[in-house]
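Side project, low priority. Logging it here so it doesn't get lost.
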Amino acid sequence: MVKQEDKTRSPRRETTKVLYLDLDVTDTREGVILARELLAANTDYHVEFIDSLSDEAVEYEKENGGLEITSF
């Protein structure tokens, strides 16, 4: 998911960060809904975009040091 640090900032590529969540859901739509609920309840982030990652994408991120799972 792509986010800004707080809800008062407009999304800008230069300051956008990525957040990874590991959710136990059956489909992408359910995951997007759950992710938005978790973020609204636990952060002040302005979330612009949420998408699921394939198993291959997760492995790539793990191998290249870009994957850090966030827990609430």
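Brief comment: The radius of gyration is 12 Å.
Revisit when time allows.
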